[in-house]
Protein 1
Amino acid sequence: MSFEGKLALVTGSGRGIGKAISLQLASQGADIIVNFFRRREAAEQTARDIESMGVKAEIIRANVGDPAKLDEMFDTIEAKFGHLDILINNAASGVGRSALDIDAKAWDWTMNINARAVLLCAQRAVKLMGEGGKIVNISSLGSAFVWPTYAAVGVSKAALEALTRYLAIELAPKGICVNAVAASAVDTEALKFYIKEGLVKDTRQATPVGRMVTPEDVAKVVAFLCSEEAFMIRGQTIIVDGGTSVAPFVLPEEGGR
Amino acid sequence: MSVEEKVKEIIAKIVHVDKSILTRESTFKDIKADSLDMVQALVAIEDEFDIEIPDEDAQKLQNFGDFIDYVESRVAEKEKS
């Protein structure tokens, strides 16, 4: 699967899953627009890693939760490149609170970044995509299952998955494929933060496969969904969890091994 | 309004506290701001002064005094360029 000559925007790609997706697509030949919001040094490192693979990297800072900033990002892409082939809606934020403690501010912040931005980015990206564009939205198992203090994010991810289905059908006649990838707890800085803050239990135990899901595991599935081999997959949310969700009563140490 | 006054006004509004309790020695923790309050305050200050405050820098600032000095220096840098 080669993405040579393709241009991909990966939102929130300074760290974690977004970074892994950027590097995966770059390793297959795509030029990457690295979007970040809070960590410039991390984004610069991602860009250097991308460039070391012999493809181009462009850094654009934007809070995708702010429609004006999101528009500015796309104005820059339009002026500089005039096209876009792949959009990965990965940027996410959230507030670790139980449902009864979520106030309007926390709700709006989470929904605006995790769900509304997916819609607004898709609307702008479609105008820059010819036939054959790909959109992949990053979800989490919190959309369908309950994790403590994950209510706001879980609900936003459910919205993202529903939106993925609507966009997939509306954009099918335009030749644009839209899907989502949902991971269970992935070994990233974000997870470490949640554990440190006492918001989730340390879930870094093994899946039924025998190890945790890595950002690279997620990135490889995203790359597949961006390939022509996945052409007939539309509006789906592919779960990458090492089997955790289909084996809720199997303790990791029992595993399937 | 000075940079210091404007910064205090933005923080007070977002965290819902009285501006007078924001001394140079106090911290976000002292005024019981959570992580969302902090990031929203940073973003509001960035927008107000058209500067960037990356987390890598924000994490090094100990109290509001450091924070105000940092914003002032970024604003001065911007005016020079």
Protein 2
Amino acid sequence: MLRGGRDAYWRRRAKTVVERRAKAGTLYDKKTVDAVRKGLKQWEESLYGKAPETRDFQTASGIPLKPLYTPDDVRDADYSDQGYPGVYPFLRGVHSTMYRGRPWTMRMFSGFGTPEDTNQRLKLLLEHGETGLSVAFDMPTLYGYDADHQRAHGEVGRCGVNVSSLKDMEVIFDGIPLNKVSTSMTINAPATVLTCMYAGVARKQGAPLAKLRGTVQADMLKEYIAQKEWAYPPEAHLRLIKDLMVFCTKEMPLWNYISISGYHIREAGSSAVQELAFTLADGFGYVELGLEAGLKVEQFAPRLSFFFNSTMDFFEEIAKFRAARRIWATVLREKYGVKDKRSLLMRFHTQTSGASLTWQQPINNVVRTAIEALAAVLGGTQSLHTNSYDEAWALPTEQAVEVALRTQQIIAEETGLPNVIDPLGGSYYVEWLTEQMEEEAYKYFDRIESAGGLLKAIKTGYLQREIAENSYRLSRRIEEGKDSVVGVNKYAKQEKEPIDTLKIDFKSQRAQLRRLASVKRERNGEKVKEALAKMRKAFENEDANSIYPMMDAVVQYATLGEIMDVGRETWGLFKEPQIL
Amino acid sequence: MAKKSAAIQKKIRILVAKPGLDGHDRGVLVLARAFRDAGMEVIYSGLLPSPEQVAQMAIDEDVDVVALSLLNGAHMTAFPRVKKLIDRMGGKDIVVVGGGIIPEEDKPKLLKLGITGLYGPGSSFEEIVEHVRGRVRKERWKE
């Protein structure tokens, strides 16, 4: 998948999803199905047939829909393909007890202004009953530039917290015991550096690295495909991820070092089918990378987690989550020969869709987010971030974040939804749609493989163009009124800014510049130089593991920018393919 | 007069750019296609150009319009900088429009600098295209 090849597996698999439906199943006998067909025909002719169809009924991905689903649509389903929670192929959930045992982790993404501001926000969320931390970084940090870099001007602390050196991380996690919390850091290109910094803070707190629980995103494949926050060409970033996989396997065994993300692929304008297909393809790519690093799948697969989007086509989203679990387990077992159960589980985090939030009539976004959150929970997510209603305007205010967290708490504690596992399992429509999504995903895997594998598909811009085309299709549909967005192309009204939004001033930029200057003054310049030189050697040597010398550089207070510059000098920059 | 009207009717050349550290290109890519569908000649800056590079591109490509988009909150630094650089390079006649997530209180400052449009999420293509056409028409009348 990663480097391409002539693997007929995907094509064969795409066919067997169909064939599975064509073989005799165990759920319905022929007599029952025949009776249903007869009844359905009567219903269609005598009742439904009188209702004229004025719209094209389809899912958001464009899968055409019938008015009604019956046992006929899943007539050949075999129950062994559905199974039980915690049992292969995990369609019904990864844990045997699911939310009866423990509700999903309510993990709210936050980070803004100065490290001090973020430290306060994290502590506040912990007090409010949040169970996992999640940190957002600003653009200079995401691209690996220090606060004092020319490119960083005006962007420091704007859409996340700025981290220029270990010092900033020490402030962000001040008073938060890293051996007790789990922390998710949304960071990609500089993920190795931030992991080293987190470990550096933990060391100072006296927390053993082997105990650290958390996640870095480090999913560079989706950066080239969708979010486009890269520093180096793909091969260089993949090499660093490979080093991180090996390092963590030895030193930080509880650290989830790649969060394979469909979220950004979807936000960039893909369909649910594309999100499913491209994300899982990336997942298989990382499996192949781990194998290239000399690891066994069983050593690293339990540390891979996924991150999906949940947006407004309720049932398609639920089908997507269920399909994802079944594809992952099936392919890992069939194609990569994995036997260990823990390695077959697809655990995932979900975030409601930022792109679905409207700038117009922002309070409506509370409702959208609740519906999306519900789909994620019905899809069996392990953790969830709910967006705040004001995020089409700015970073969220504390009040808006509280409503978003309360939305999850209401679903978890008032609806009774966690009482029954996978409550939509067995719905004719949901099971049928789940299979449809699977089939479409396998077809895409085959297309990517035929296009020369992921790396090639990224470099030629194939995947990027697929997304851009779908995104334009969606925008056109809204523009033409084929799809409705309440408050935007329907029920719109003239309005002024009706809500209070969070304001970020330039104070945080100035504060960061001051701290960075003092870090550079106070550190041992000779030791920094020495550490960076050692790291450069490791960068230049394919066989070395670069994380150890990177850790040494970090604890000497070499800055993020200095470390990333060594990479930029070694590997150069990435030139994006023409997409338009 | 006929000559002037021909000049006004000429195909619009537009540079679409995101001048900053912001890879979220869904909006610009969609807009670029919409401008193209509306009959304009579209040049896309690619990702992560500096304000200097955007201004240089505008001059080199001899465009009528520069359409800027940012979603990362840096518009108050990047937009005025691009405009200033274009003016300085002799492109005072180039129309500069902007869009993205731009708070109400920032708008007067940008408008005063001659950066107009300032469309937010959910704006229709039609509205944006008409705005661009209107500004170009006005600019061409001046000449």
